[in-house]
Description:
The complex is a heterodimer. Chain A is an alpha/beta fold. Chain A is 36% helix and 28% strand. Chain A has 7 helices and 10 strands. In chain A, helix 2 packs across helix 3 (111-124), helix 2 (95-106) runs parallel beside helix 4 (140-153) and helix 6 (198-204) crosses helix 7. Chain A starts with a strand and ends with a helix. In chain B, helix 4 packs across helix 11 (209-218), helix 7 (121-145) runs antiparallel to helix 10 and helix 8 crosses helix 9 (162-173). By secondary structure, chain B is mainly alpha-helical. Chain A binds chain B through residues 55-57, 74-77, 79-81, 83, 85, 87-88, 90-92, 101-102, 105-106, 134-137, 154, and chain B through 148, 150-151, 153-154, 156-160, 164, 168-169, 172-173, 175, 251, 254-257.
Amino acid sequence: MTDLLRVRGVTISYPTENGLFTAVDDVTFSVGRGEKFILLGPSGCGKSTLLKSVAGFMPPARGTVELDGRSVSRPGPDRVVVFQEFDQLLPWKTVLGNVVYPLRVAKRMDEAAARREAERFLGMVGLDRFADSYPHQLSGGMKQRAAIARSLALDPAMLLMDEPFASLDALTRRKMQEELLTIWEATRKTILFVTHSIQEAVILGDRILILSRGPGRVRRLVDNPAAGQRDTDAALAMQREIQETLGE
Amino acid sequence: MTSLWRRPAVRKTVIVLALLVVWEAVTRWAASPLLFPTASSVLAAFGRSIVNGEVPGYAAQSLKVLLTGMAIGGALALALTTVAVTTRIGAEFLETVTAMFNPLPAIALMPLALLWFGLGVKSLIFVIIHSVLWPMSLNTYTGFVTVPQTLRRVGQNFGLSGWRLVAGILLPAAFPYILSGIKIGWAFAWRTIIAAEMVFGVAGSQGGLGWFIYQNRFEMNTDLVFAGLLTVILIGLLVENLFFKWLERKTVLRWGMSAAH
């Protein structure tokens, strides 16, 4: 497996009222092509900050982020972010318009091609019947599905998912995890996924990077043989193991 | 009957009719037609001046000047706020000049406008621009800075930056604020132009509604003065209740973006 993303010695700090705050300290990891890679840790461990740095929103104070050998310095459509917040959809565009618009501006597709592509991915996430709805008419789960369809349509080198299911109710969340796995089977997109849920990490991740709190440092990198499984013996054993690492 | 009475529009119509009746009765009984004409004579004068094309002509002139001023003011507000939201010095510039000029009534600038532009449409446009630029800039800027960070980042993620981010994301995301800025701008501009036309009078061949009112006072056509005032009220109501309501239905209501304030 060749590495797509290389994060080396990354330290991220930003000014606050009480001086410079170091959110992430000297973190190194690599994500392979087609891999589902999880950043897991308690809240305040800097995992979201780390993802924002990969996205190009927060340049690291030290260290490098490289995608496919090229240094990342700014946001771009080769690394599309699915945010936790429901307001990531443009409220003034329909669901279809939300997928078409970035294809027009980022990929310079013509209207007809963008529409075709958008319809294909809305079909993939099961939103074809809601193409003409406005975001405020959708449930939280549907909004996140639309955001995923929008990200996939852009055909990025990797998908950056920042706790995308954290604001959903338990049942919807479970369903979305299954759907993400199905989508990944179909597309084999490289995914960097941030979560604080151990269970979610074990279901989704091929590998899981466990971060410790304040400032975020690498605790342990685990291979997850139970990827794609829920409540199996292997999955439960994996969850226990991670729990113990975090509890140390 | 009772179900009809429950509708606010019906009750408001009744209030207007009652006011007209009181007006008619009081003026017939106690007022001089030169100072306070009866409701019926005002309505008749209003009807006559509509039919003979006089009032529509004056109103069209006022609206033309007003829309020109609002368009220029709006474009300037957009340029100012775009610079303000993309650079720090631009933000400080905008904050300083709006703080300075916003409290200054447009009417107070009229002597200066006369000095600079003379009697005429240019002076009118100048004071209209002043009356709309600051409130529209303030609202647009507030709209821009309150756009959720997630939406900005979504735009940046699409590779947008600078004015493309402003046009593609910030402008529509701030639209509830911009719309309320336009509404405030309209209200200021409409009041300003009527007042300013009384000072500047007629420019070229056609004057505006303010001039119509002023001129008829001069000739003691009090019923036409009232007809002019009635026109000012009616146009204000039509724009606020029909045009802006329609625009809101087409935009912020449809998008589920609650009006900012």
